[in-house]
Design a protein that fits this description.
Elements (H helix, E strand, L loop, with lengths): L2 E5 L1 H10 L6 H10 L4 E5 L9 H10 L3 E6 L3 H10 L3 E4 L19 H13 L3 E6 L3 H10 L3 E5 L1 H4 L4 H20 L3 E5 L7 H5 L6 E4 L1 H10 L1 H15 L2
Parallel strand pairs: 1-2, 1-8, 2-3, 3-4, 4-5, 5-6, 6-7, 7-8
The structure holds pyridoxine-5'-phosphate.
């Protein structure tokens, strides 16, 4: 069964909205672990809009499951990650005006810079994953650039309005996954997955990890983080291939 990585960024978003010290994403990570999370994911953005350096350092010291840092390939952030040495770094595109990470990293276009960042992180013992759209050129480029894993962007599936669009998106994910496996890449998935739409993705064999944030944190506001994670985990178990 695929691992559940819980993205806790939006706990920090609520904290930053008032500039106080609550709610604490580090505490949320503990609760997520107690609910059955297999991994904790955070995104240290260049603009520090939610997760702060202090959060990243404390998470590194306290998280007992897999710690996955999402990051841009900016020099300052790569240096921070090499020092922090989380279990895994997922390289993502980052634009200051975006609400959340929109679409995948263009590994084809930025291959030289991406390859440098991948090599530096791997030299520090970090597993490196590429957050990409499920298209063959990006999968091929990710393998050539030295990534250990790819995280396929599930946004097209999550945002599909018709069953036709949904079927097309699922087919693209399956094709990209097969290609990833042929290139010896571990295959993850994430973005826009919710309690309502995760079943079909969870039922596809071959995904090693799902990273889910907004939907879990939204439910956690109402039922608590531990319970919210438990409910998502139950769905993954129920629909596992
Ligand atoms: N995976 C990656 C690489 C992401 O950038 C994000 C959003 O931060 C997620 C997964 C989680 O997306 P969502 O919050 O829509 O579940």
């Amino acid at each position: 069964m695929a691992l559940l990585g819980v993205n806790i960024d939006h706990v920090a978003t609520v904290r930053q909205a008032r500039g106080t010290d609550e709610p604490d994403p580090v505490w949320a990570a503990v609760e997520a672990e107690l609910g059955g999370a297999d991994g904790i994911t955070f995104h240290l953005r260049e603009d520090r809009r939610h997760i702060q350096d202090r959060d990243a350092r404390l998470l590194r010291q306290t998280v007992g499951v897999k710690l996955n840092m999402e990051m841009a390939i900016a020099e300052e952030i790569v240096a921070f990650a090499c020092d922090l040495k989380p279990a895994q770094c997922t390289l993502v595109p980052e634009r200051r005006e975006e609400l959340t990470t929109e679409g995948g990293l263009d590994v084809v276009r930025h291959s030289a810079r991406v390859a440098q960042a991948v090599a530096r992180l791997r030299d520090h013992g970090v597993v490196v994953s590429a957050f990409i759209e499920p298209v063959s050129d990006q999968v091929r480029a990710s393998a050539e650039t030295g990534f250990n894993a790819i995280e396929l962007w599930t946004g097209a599936y999550a945002h599909a309005r018709t069953s036709e669009q949904r079927t097309t998106a699922l087919a693209a994910l399956s094709t990209a996954m097969e290609m990833g496996h042929r290139s010896k890449l571990e295959v993850h998935a994430g973005h826009g997955l919710t309690y309502r739409n995760v079943a079909e993705i969870a039922a596809i064999p071959g995904f090693v990890e799902f990273n889910i944030g907004h939907s879990i944190v939204s439910r956690a506001v109402l039922v608590g983080m531990r319970q919210a994670v438990r409910e998502m985990k139950e769905l993954l178990v129920r629909h596992a291939p």
